[in-house]
Amino acid sequence: MIVKVDLARILRAALRGLPDTSLASVRQGADRTKMTVRSAGHSYRLEALWAGEGWPSDVRRALASANEDPWPRHLVVMARKLSPGALALLRECDANWIDEVGSARIVVPPGLLIVRETRSEATAGPPQEFRWSPSTLHVAEVALSEGLTKLRTGELADKTPWSAGQISNVLNAFDSLGWTVRHGGKSGRGTWRELAGPAAMLDSWAAHIGSLDRPKRLAHRAVRDLLRFAETELRDALGWDEATWALTTWAGLEVTAPFVTAVPIVHVYVPAERFATELDEILRGAGLREVEEGARVEFWEANFPLITQLGQPSQIPVASTPRLYADLLALGGRGTDAAQHLRESKLGF
What we know:
Blueprint (H helix, E strand, L loop, with lengths): L3 H12 L5 E8 L4 E7 L2 E9 L5 H11 L8 E5 L4 H9 L3 E4 L4 E5 L3 E5 L2 H4 L11 H12 L4 E2 L1 H7 L4 H14 L2 E4 L8 E4 L2 H14 L4 E5 L5 H13 L7 E3 H6 L11 E6 H6 L1 H7 L3 E2 L6 E6 L5 E3 L6 E3 L1 H11 L2 H14 L2
Helix pairs in contact: 2-3, 5-8, 6-7, 8-13, 9-12, 13-14
């Protein structure tokens, strides 16, 4: 928890410039800091709810601790720097908030009204000309899956099939969205980008991934434990090369961040060339029969560079954490809860 003087400083900064308005008192309560603001002859009692760095996961915890609907007008969420995703959550709740970089929204009847936007908030909406492309999708997935905070053109070119020139164009597009911030000059070896908006990038990226149609083939086999089947017989049929296939959704989640008691269906990414030429043999090798409905296993064509990680403890290939999140989110229902669990436990923004 931030100390009382820091919270007072954040609030004073938000009040700066308002006529006849000041912070009158600050008192540390058992779990919240209580502050009184005097404005135009009225006293307004506020309670500060600290949300740490201001990532969506931080704000969700703060909102859960408040657990009140409608939002109490005296309650104010405070953080170091509220991300675009966190701000979206707060707006959904009609909440009050302040952060250290100048974002503020406090509405307390009868007359305390503060609304301040930072420059990044005002420009956070994607410009109409931006479109997700194979290169922007891949670079974003690399940055998000590897937890990169400094993005350099040459290093990204080494990690991806894209040229340095194309990577530079991608990063320029991310700059315009406010997701990255350029440092070290306009060009040259000293230039790098700070990943300033990972939450907003993930939200947009995952929404696009979830909207895509993907070629798939459905298969069935009566087995008692689908995850065990995936880790043994299906793995033998697909091969042990982690670059040539990957689990996603429920099975991928269970070997990455366990959440459900039983895997209801197995989804598997297979690169496009393998999908077209080897899948019949894979089905036979795993004892699967192709069906039109009622599938226990779905094979999805991966027409993009497959980024994998190894699930535990079986070391089975799993799609990257951002893609796993996007695929769970696209399922809807219980998948949304599972995606949120993964985001909080493995991504943190």
